[in-house]
Amino acid sequence: MGRGMRAWALLAAVFALLAIIAGFEIAAYAGAFGRVVWHVDTKDKVLFLTFDDGPSENTRAVLDILRENGVKATFFVVGKQAATHPDAVRAILKEGHGLGVHSMTHPWLWKNASEEIVLSKMLTENIAGSKVSLFRPPHGFMTPFVALEAEENNLTVVMWNVFPYDYKRGADEIISKVEEKIKPGSIIVLHDGPGNRSEMIEALPRIIAIAKSRNYSFGLLEDYLRD
């Protein structure tokens, strides 16, 4: 790799990191990384629920809430979690939800992007028995090389425009942040990974109810992102 390319990669990575840390909901730098979806371009009053970092012991509770409310979502699974909870991966698909990959071990993809993406895709597809077409980089961290690996593996990179930090906030604050940000085509990120997710689980049915009261429906990303 030439010195100029290394400098560009470092600059892009630093900018991406600063954007994530600052909580910016921007797509300005996405053009450098090929197709990166931050929201769905639609005038329909439809929202897209997504869940990261699972599956885990919390996934069943999330699936129950979604089923009870007639809502579909997309789960971006971590490979090591999928290997530990393969039945949860199959349950996600059996109940009509979407599936994407979120790397193998959830690192910052400074290096080993190829290994992390390829292995997570292979493992998830093997468990699911079907192809996976969506990828969300851990921590939302992108570089041109991550984008290239995603493209070479026929994966569309999906980010978000509603990130309520549900893993460190109470239910009321999670709900408030989602209410404040949603608009047609919004992609909402919640987390069903291991650990205490009780606040998110409490917030989820209330988020759904509030959205429906505003005449929003919930869609599957796969249905809207097909070429």
List the helices and strands and how they pair.
Blueprint: H1 3-22, E1 36-37, E2 46-52, H2 59-68, E3 73-77, H3 79-84, H4 86-94, E4 98-101, H5 113-128, E5 134-135, H6 144-152, E6 156-158, H7 171-181, E7 187-191, H8 198-213, E8 217-218, H9 221-224
Parallel strand pairs: 1-6, 2-3, 2-7, 2-8, 3-4, 5-6
Helix pairs in contact: 5-6, 7-8
Explain what you see:
The chain is of the alpha/beta class. The chain folds into 2 domains: 1-30; 35-223, Glycoside hydrolase/deacetylase (TIM Barrel), CATH 3.20.20.370. The protein contains 9 helices and 8 strands. It has helices at residues 3-22, 59-68, 79-84, 86-94, 113-128, 144-152, 171-181, 198-213, 221-224, and strands at residues 36-37, 46-52, 73-77, 98-101, 134-135, 156-158, 187-191, 217-218. Strands 2, 3, 4, 7 and 8 form a 5-stranded parallel beta sheet that branches. It has a 3-stranded parallel beta sheet with strand order 1-6-5, covered by helices on one side. Strand 2 (46-52), helix 2 and strand 3 form a beta-alpha-beta unit. It is globular. The chain starts with a helix and ends with a helix.
Task: Record keyword descriptors for this entry.
227 residues; alpha/beta; TIM Barrel; 2 domains; three-stranded parallel beta sheet; globular
